[in-house]
Amino acid sequence: IDYQHLLTFNSLVSPRDIMVQTAKALYTRGKEEKAVEVLDRMQELIPAATLPLNNSIISGLNDKAVLDAISVYCAAGEKKKAYKLADEFAAETLKAIDLFAKPYADGYLSYEYTNQAFSYLLLLQEVFKGNDDMKKANQIGKLINERLERVQKAI
User: Fold this and answer.
1) Within 13 Å, how many C-alpha atoms sit on residue 74's CB side?
2) Which end of the chain is more exposed for a tag (fewer CB within 10 A), N or C?
3) Residues β-bridged to residue 102
4) Residues 90, 99: Cα–Cα separation, whole Å
């Protein structure tokens, strides 16, 4: 996908966001099964290979939609699906940290994008805390701490 399409799909008309908003509306109306179906279909139609889950450079609706999808999966009792999506999102986010936290001049390649990526991991951790899944929240917290230590040692 070229830059213009990334910008459109991340910030202007995010297909993930449209589907997640639909799933959230269904969930709040008590239609959990339908909400999960919409999220499952989203995963089929918009795989990470086609449109990354985390676009730290062009953050926007897409990234928020992924976090919201994880939250809806958790709320609907679909932890396995929530974990799978969360793990994929975290893996992409860690790659972004590895890229943007590379030593450059007197600091990092990009402080802004490094901080953005860490904030996504913190938001992901909050999703699981908010859904009373402290085991997964702690697992993500460990990832954050390990990567932060590595980044701090690099400069």
Assistant:
1) 22
2) C
3) none
4) 14
> In this structure, which amino acid lies at residue 117?
A
Per-residue pLDDT of the chain (155 residues; tens, 9 = 90+): 455 566 666 666 688 899 999 999 999 999 999 999 999 999 999 898 888 888 766 667 888 999 999 999 999 999 999 999 999 999 999 999 999 998 888 888 888 889 999 999 999 999 999 999 999 999 999 999 999 999 988 76
Instruction: Give Cα 150 to chain centroid, integer Å.
Output: 21
Taking the C-alpha atoms of residue 128 and residue 72, their distance in angstroms, rounded to an integer, is 11
Instruction: Name the amino acid, one letter, at 122.
Output: L
Q: Residue count of the chain, please give it.
A: 155
**Contact status, residue 114 vs residue 101, Cβ threshold 8 Å:** yes
d(C-alpha 7, C-alpha 10), whole Å: 5
- Please report, for residues 39, 84, 118, 145, 149, the alpha-carbon distance to residue 152 in angstroms, rounded to integers and kept in the order given: 37, 29, 13, 10, 5
- Cβ atoms of 66 and 120 within 8 Å: the answer is no
DSSP string, 57-112: GG-SHHHHHHHHHHHHHHHTT-HHHHHHHHHHHHHHHHHHHHHHTSEETTEES-HH
